[in-house]
């Protein structure tokens, strides 16, 4: 097996039924050369700030740096330290990337049937030209080949953007982020833009919160001693992001209840929080209040508001203690979006300038809550399948659940959410193939006509993301109304 | 595109795989000429009261009058006024149906992939013989053709019933409805019957409630000053409906908890409500109590009890203020039917005369709650997929989820829920084709034999609705046992 | 119809699409002769204790003794007494098995499209060689043929185990069960082992609880007057089970909250419970506490811990009064496993010796909660689809939902849950065919390669159950660490 030539099926993701497959191929031919629009992801802007930037070694890039990969290896008994992850307090860990890489290759079968396995195979074969399946036997050869490629100009981040045809790439950045890397990239002709992600500023009860407020004050250049000043500072940063090309903000939502507070109460709570006196329950109410304020600001500055809902962060508390957050141990929970989004949608859902994109990890809300809401409120678009669900079957379940109620034109297109830049193409490849196949089946069942199939394939592959995230509008920066 | 001949795929809804498709065709041939039974819908009885009645103009019929259509147009930014809908306070709105129709035709692509799009296409092509797709270009020609047809005797409501082969049509009517229109229709040989829908009488805290009680008193001819008298009046109306051919009652359920109150408490609450002193929470408890009473009455008079559960009405409160209810802004919520239906099913689920049909907007309850409950309690049948879910994929998900646990014989068949009468046939057409295709696939996988496939196709198309709603029994009116 | 030859489709469960079907056949050929591993079910050990044991008559075996069968017959109006079930207080019931059998055969169509129908057909045709479909006409002939077979040596329980190729069969047994039947079976070379199911000991508020504690004391041979002694007794029984070959414990979970109590509080509550003073709410907390203790013991003795979550037992209270529990009236409810399992997984989810297998009746948790949890915590494996869901479509939904996130190697394989021994083979047959077909489709879509398909087919059919339930390890009995 390990010595077979490893190849990509040119019909991957397509249905076996010949008439569907042949139509899927045709639709895919219509879209496969369209540019990529990447409105949400986690690739760092500094990778594009100068021509000389390079990606790290294969183990760091594909294993230690990717929670999708190390979480499943851990689930089969490997300690995080064995995968190169560093405990907070220091402590021993594997420092040899080649050793980490071997552990991964020996267990590559664990990724059979997973989107991670498919993305990695597509990336290794299509992007890097590898012809051997990862295994104990091939591990060292693959490491050498990848390591050599990754330091070459051909695989530099800027070169990959160009090779993949990425037209627009949005990074994810905290409120106080410097935006120089984005400006450097743009100066080189790349449309790499920031996304305003102020989660840290919303968490009143977090021990780090006051330090974050101080950093915010330093960046905006005025004191932030009241809620009014805080809102002004946030507004200023949104504008700075917009001027640096941002078209969107992004927000994690841990409680679906998005009711605003009375503004006097909010101001009073903010003052107490500065004095270190806010409780976790109060922090949660403030978080909801601030999301409401973010929506209000979005009606002014036109930044598209993204909500990522339904993840219980840091489920494994022992792991949180030892390694900190973002260790792949966030787990979805059910949420009531019908009631939760009601205050926000009642207030702003009919505003022309407001646009809300909701991503969820609770697939039961697709057909029950999100599609019906999007089929009524003009401001709402459905975010693409997220995280555990941006897979072949996840995409199919999403389309099955939402299209009949919301149609195609309320869908926000695809976000790749990539961390390892070389896998970005593979993720779009799976989306485009799977949507084309889904549309081909619809057409072959007589449920849409040929024109609608082509139109929808192009929309899902390209137009929806551009339109939803106002990519076409970015050269006309949004002006606040006040 | 707009000038292509617009045609219906004779194999629409069928699977592409040839062996499934050919069997689906055979099964469909077995059922396509069976009469239609329509046990629940929203077509007005007055349309059948006299031969001269006509349907309204195309825009009023298919756009302004159909929440499925105007909700999605609104979701893409059209104001309700632009679609001809009248604000409560008066105010401007589009009064030219042709202008409304043009807005719809220009945006017909928005309905790609939706059941509404499929129903409308089927209706326009099959029922009206149109050969052009709606578009900016074709809008006026289509309006003229439809408008001309709609005033002709060939498209009169009675003529459509006959052409569609509708054997039994149940309308939906408030408790104090006059039933003369139904009697007129019946006198002309049409089986158009009312359905007892007393929702308004259950809502103690509604400002209109006392007026409704007074109207009820006027209709029954005795004073309704106590719960006892109220129950007697309701019982009398149920009987009047049954005498006018009704075989069923229908109820919206906003809380799944159907526990009855202590009867003294209920009587006392009723008295306070008459004095205008019931709180919303009390109103909700009373609603549950009355549903329990309705079930008890159903064991006496044999009216089939329908529950429509899981919709949060009037989600968009600004819209409610401006336009009132029923504006397409009801949104589903999750509900616990296992615990919620327990009091009712414990009390009456084993009663021979009681029959309960439950429709839900929360598809997760199909396999988890409703099918297991229906697979135990004799009185319970599963209502067909409802509202957002009476689509090709919605029907498939329903059958996938319920048949393995409850079998075919616990399914209540199809209700079309139609508002625009001409689309009634299209909705049954989608149901019949999709169920036949689903059965064909089951048979081709060796999971049912040929006999079961034919038997089940006929049951789902026709027998289930007749049997569930006691249509065959209607000439033997139910006698109360007391 | 009744006189047609009744045959099994050799391609049953396979997709109609020819390329998928032919690959499914190949994969199935790889697994169909592998031994059966049955790590969870409800066949009584005494059936294997001596060679002379025989199964009961056809009606008792397939109807009166099988809740899957009698529940659906009851749902169509048959009284439980008519199906041979005995009311608690005595009272009349059908005592003629042939009459019960006739009622079943007359209504065999009710099982069209259900897994029960498929299992029974497979069993009647494949195991017993019947060639007539059950019907009013064939009922007596079938009864005679089955009754004759069931008393013959060829259909003795031991003979069936051997004929089916059952390598390992785990029964389900209360904590105080005598284990002699298992030992007798093992002495005859059969790997029939007990499973430790101490549910009754957890239910403090149950009127029978104290009697159970006394029986426990009698079996372990020391007084159980404190929580400490209780835990010691439980530990002793776990060891006794392990010595009798058990590799697992099993637990029903009615509340998903598995937080432990403070140990002093637990001890004090236990003492009050012995004095008959525990409330239902306290009993529930204690149940959760004991599950936590069970997990702790599992880290010591290595018994695999199974949780069956999400069933509301005895939904029909009138039935409970008249017939007692286990009458097929348990109904699923939604549960929050992300938060519910957190305490247990935080404490033990990373322990090498701990293994947890979770079965649920709430399919919405597959992709949202269980697969993400299993994709992180080493100790967790996903139990196979359970009860209402161990059907063709139930299995497909399960694989669709979990594999992409958790991969194949976190799946626990299949448990047949059989009550009527002759149906055991049919249940594995459906699992093996459906998983092979599912894998064939994945391969034909280019999502896994040939090697992964074969590997995964063998894993799901055989390896997963052996590995998960430590069947290979049973000859090296687990030693407590203390």
Could you please describe the fold and organization of this structure?
- The structure is a homotrimer of 482-residue chains.
- In chain A, helix 1 crosses helix 20, helix 10 packs across helix 11 and helix 18 crosses helix 19.
- Chain A starts with 17 loop residues before the first helix and ends in a 14-residue tail after the last helix.
- Chain A folds into 2 domains: 100 residues, Orthogonal Bundle (uronate isomerase, domain 2, chain A), CATH 1.10.2020; 310 residues, TIM Barrel.
- Chain A has 482 residues and is an alpha/beta fold.
- The first copy, chain A, contains 20 helices and 9 strands.
- The C terminus of chain A is likely disordered.
- In chain A, the strands form 3 sheets. Chain A has a 4-stranded parallel sheet, covered by helices on one side. In chain A, strands 1-2-3 form a 3-stranded parallel sheet. A two-stranded antiparallel sheet of chain A has the order 6-7.
- Chains in contact: A-B, A-C, B-C.
Provide a concise account of the structure shown.
3 copies of one chain form a homotrimer. With 482 residues, the first copy, chain A, is of the alpha/beta class.
What's the domain count of chain A? 2
Radius of gyration of chain A: 23 Å
Helical percent range of chain A? 40-55%
CATH class of the largest domain in chain A: Alpha Beta
Proportion in β-strands of chain A: 5-15%
Quaternary structure annotation: homotrimer
Q: How many E strands of chain A? A: 9
* Overall pLDDT of chain A: 95
- Low-pLDDT runs of chain A: 474-482
Pairing-aware structural class of the strands and helices of chain A? alpha/beta
Name the strands of the widest sheet of chain A in spatial order: 4-5-8-9
Number of helices of chain A: 20
Order of helices and strands of chain A: HEHHHHHHEHEHHHEHHEEHEHHEHEHHH
CATH homolog superfamily of the largest domain in chain A: Metal-dependent hydrolases
Largest chain interface and its two residue counts? A-B, 46 and 46 residues
N→C terminal distance of chain A? 66 Å
Largest sheet of chain A: 4 strands, parallel
- The outline of chain A comes out as globular
Per the CATH scheme, the topology name of the largest domain in chain A is: TIM Barrel
